[in-house]
Write a structure and sequence with these properties.
The protein is mainly alpha-helical. It has a single domain, classed as AhpD-like. Helix content is about 70%, strand content about 0%. Helix 3 packs antiparallel against helix 4. The protein is globular and about 50 Å long. The two termini are about 20 Å apart. It catalyses: N(6)-[(R)-dihydrolipoyl]-L-lysyl-[lipoyl-carrier protein] + a hydroperoxide = N(6)-[(R)-lipoyl]-L-lysyl-[lipoyl-carrier protein] + an alcohol + H2O.
Length: about 180
């Protein structure tokens, strides 16, 4: 199903999401690669297969194969890291000082500009609710030259994509 067709399936009770999704899909705050990758990584993190397929169909075509793989990698590695680092943050104590002993080499060599990968990681971390990771990635993108408005745009994309994914899933369940 196309992105536009899926967007049209957003129920009227959530029309603000539909409008926000359309606005963000055309946002000029981020580069084309940053925007498309943020949509892809956020959709994957939102765990709605149908919506993820539509987002990848729409935005994946705007990314090089390397950038598409990096956006997917950001969602994958943050899926692991967000759980682990939320745990260490919640627990505190010795856990924060122990080495993670988890392979995460893609963060060092993501195959795209480091700032873009960090931005996608930030969006996924926001969806997954990992404060420690959001702060770390925000610091990295700011040091990489992005503005607070660009960071906010990535967070807005993450918020709307996640809300749309949840709404579509709830709507489908209600119709079943």
């Amino acid at each position: 199903m196309s992105f536009e067709a899926l967007k049209d399936r957003i129920p009227d009770y959530a029309k603000d999401l539909r409008l926000n999704l359309g606005t963000l899909a055309n946002d000029a705050t981020l580069s084309a690669q940053q925007l498309a990758g943020t949509f892809v990584a956020s959709a994957i993190a939102s765990r709605n297969d149908e919506f993820t397929k539509a987002v990848i169909e729409e935005f994946g075509a705007k990314l090089s194969p390397e950038a598409l793989a990096a956006a997917k990698s950001a969602a994958a590695i943050m899926g692991m890291n967000n759980v682990y680092y939320r745990f260490t943050h919640f627990m505190g104590g010795d856990y924060e000082n122990l080495p993670a002993k988890l392979r995460m080499s893609v963060i060092g060599k993501p195959g795209v500009e480091k700032v873009d990968f960090e931005l996608w990681s930030l969006a996924v971390s926001a969806i997954n609710g990992c404060e420690m990771c959001v702060r770390s990635h925000e610091r990295a993108v700011r040091e990489g030259g992005l503005t607070s408005e660009q960071v906010q745009t990535a967070a807005r994309i993450a918020a709307v994509v996640h809300a749309v994914a949840v709404t579509l899933e709830a709507s489908a369940a209600a119709d079943a």
